[in-house]
Amino acid sequence: MSATSGANGAGTTSRILDVAERMLQVRGYNGFSYGDVAAELDITRAALHYHFKGKAELGQALIERYAARFADALAHLDATAPDAAAKLRGYADLYTDVLSADRMCLCGMLAAEHRTLPDPLQQAVCAFFASNTAWLRRVLEEGCADGSLRCPGTPEDTASMVLGALEGAMLITRLDGDVARFTATANQLLAGLSPVPVRDTGTPPSPRC
């Protein structure tokens, strides 16, 4: 990305990123062009190239900004959630918030197009998901230690399961925009990681049809 000078330059850069981010989250990386961004902002393509040399550089900037915001959100959960279970719930809520804005996870959209992306973008997407998996693994280890969570497998495997389930549920929700279906899936996933309640064996359960 080219250096910009003055408040106006910085403001234009931010506007470009905002528009391109929305387009990517709705259409995918291959679903929008520099011309689309320039037309919406009512600027020339030359002006767009002044801020970002090419689409790959724009994509890199989008991933970096998105990853930084996501990292800030995870840091906030670490600082405010009372236990690991609450952190995991907060993590799922981040996905719900994105869906509620009629968008998809930016890096999830890029992952679907992974083989068509320039190498730097492929690496940046992999780094985003590796960072998320590491955070989830740490939360699961913490929850298994303090009793607020249970791990059906290793923390690493369970972290990958959580990430894959949420990203997959998000993708399916895109078909009809039914956020409630995503929420139900997330709730079921989290329920499966909650400590198993101890059944009172003194009274046998009532038979069911």
Protein architecture, described:
The structure is a single chain. This protein has 209 residues and is mostly helical. It has a domain at 59-192: Tetracycline Repressor, domain 2 (Orthogonal Bundle), CATH 1.10.357.10. Helix content is 71%, strand content 0%. The chain has helices spanning 6-27, 34-41, 45-51, 55-80, 84-100, 106-112, 119-146, 155-173, 179-192. Helix 6 (106-112) packs across helix 7. The N and C termini lie far apart (65 Å). Residues 1-7 and 198-209 have low confidence and may be disordered.
Oligomer: single chain
The strand count comes to 0
Tell me the CATH superfamily of the domain at 59-192.
Tetracycline Repressor, domain 2
Gyration radius (Cα, Å) is 21 Å
Helical fraction? over 70%
Structural class: mainly alpha
Which percent band covers the strand fraction? Answer: under 5%
Instruction: Assign the CATH architecture of the domain at 59-192.
Output: Orthogonal Bundle
* CATH class bucket of the domain at 59-192: Mainly Alpha
Q: pLDDT below 50 for ≥5 consecutive residues: which ranges?
A: 1-7, 198-209
- CATH topological fold name of the domain at 59-192: Tetracycline Repressor, domain 2
**Sheet having the most strands:** none
Number of helices: 9
Shape label: elongated
Q: What is the succession of H and E elements? A: HHHHHHHHH
Mean pLDDT: 89
Tell me the distance between the termini: 65 Å
